[in-house]
Design a protein that fits this description.
Blueprint (H helix, E strand, L loop, with lengths): L1 H21 L1 E6 L7 H17 L3 E6 L7 H10 L4 E2 L24 H21 L2 E11 L1 E4 L14 E4 L3 H10 L2 E4 L5 H7 L4 E4 L1 H6 L8 E4 L4 E9 H6 L2 H35 L3 E4 L2 H7 L1 H10 L3 H12 L3
Parallel strand pairs: 1-2, 1-3, 6-7, 6-8, 9-11
Antiparallel strand pairs: 4-10, 5-8, 5-9
Helix pairs in contact: 2-9, 4-12, 11-12
Pfam families: DctP
Main location: periplasm
GO biological process, one term: transmembrane transport
């Protein structure tokens, strides 16, 4: 009888162990602060995936650069230490193809972005996979605006000499040099302190990133430029993606598509709500002369068209999709 009870307990333990081993725990790291659009997007994706996967897997979320800054997260994806990340501008350092979203004013609105996605996703996916990644879906960082402590920015000349934090993207740095600023690439998690201590004068981000990171507490001016629209990429490694069961991949793809819809709706709401939050903090707000910025951006387009293989054709295609009805 004792042997039977022992054997039964052993079998139960083995079954429990196998069930536990079958469940995948997937870590999703991102740089977004609490209350950011990044946090909302990642949490939505995780909730959707967890509801659909049940005991097949669980997505756990880690914001505020807990698992690393953007560059570190890209490395950890390949090493299998992180399963998902939500990079944005940094993707232009992964492959030149993603630099198309660094072109000033090339994306008009979210409907335009959807058309670009529908028409060109194979190109973006190919670029990601050739570098060891897989794009599960797209979300959003958003339309970017400039804050600083020196002066209101109405035209590019107003940026002259301003030490401006940018993401680690070649074309963003070139763009702000062309405008006359002193661009300083820096990890997002380091920006608040750098602004507070005067290491940099300003930065550029969507309202959702500005407000959630509380930059309004250490900045005097917000200039509404809308100079770049940056998508965010729900990214995993190619190796991990190909190793997951087809059913799991299907669920994750569906949830990414649902998250994009959620993100676009949420982002539109935040654009109104968070501008008010920034203004209420005492930040002086002005509408920049976008025509002046567009005029000053021509050399950036010329450079991308001549330096990036197929760059001119990509620019033409994206601009064409912006004119579609």
């Amino acid at each position: 009888m004792k042997l039977t009870r022992f054997a039964a307990a052993a079998v139960a333990a083995l079954v429990a162990s196998q069930a536990q081993a079958a469940e995948m725990t997937m870590k999703f790291g991102h740089v977004g602060a609490p209350g950011s659009l990044f946090e909302a997007s990642v949490d939505h994706f995780a909730q959707c995936a967890n509801d659909a996967l049940g005991d097949k897997g669980e997505v756990q979320t880690f914001g505020s650069s807990q698992l690393g800054k953007d560059k570190e997260l890209l490395q950890k994806l390949k090493l299998g230490q992180v399963d998902f990340a939500l990079p944005s501008s940094v993707m232009s350092s992964v492959d030149d193809v993603f630099g198309i979203f660094e072109m000033p004013y090339i994306i008009k609105d979210r409907d335009h972005m959807r058309r670009v996605q529908d028409a060109m996703m194979d190109k973006f996916q190919g670029a990601a996979e050739s570098n060891g990644y897989h794009i599960v879906g797209l979300a959003e960082n958003g339309f970017r605006h400039i804050t600083n402590n020196i002066r209101p920015v109405n035209v590019p000349a107003d940026l002259d000499g301003i030490k401006l934090r940018t993401p680690n993207g070649t074309w963003r740095v070139k763009m702000f040099k062309e405008y006359g600023a002193n661009p300083t690439p820096m990890a997002f998690s380091d920006v608040f302190t750098a602004l507070q201590t005067g290491v940099i004068d300003g930065q550029e981000n969507p309202y959702a990133q500005i407000a959630s990171a509380k930059f309004q507490e250490v900045q005097k001016y917000l200039s509404i430029t809308g100079h770049v629209y940056t998508p965010a990429y729900i990214l995993t490694s190619k190796k991990a993606w190909e190793g997951w069961p087809e059913e799991v991949r299907g669920t994750l793809s569906d949830c990414a598509a649902q998250t994009q819809d959620f993100t676009y709706e949420k982002a539109a709401e935040l654009e109104v709500e968070l501008l008010a939050v920034i203004e209420e903090a005492g930040v002086e707000v002005n509408e920049a002369d976008k025509d002046a910025f567009i005029e000053a951006s021509k050399p950036i387009y010329d450079g991308f068209g001549s330096e990036v293989d197929g760059g001119a054709e990509m620019i033409e295609q994206v601009l064409g999709l912006g004119n579609a009805s």
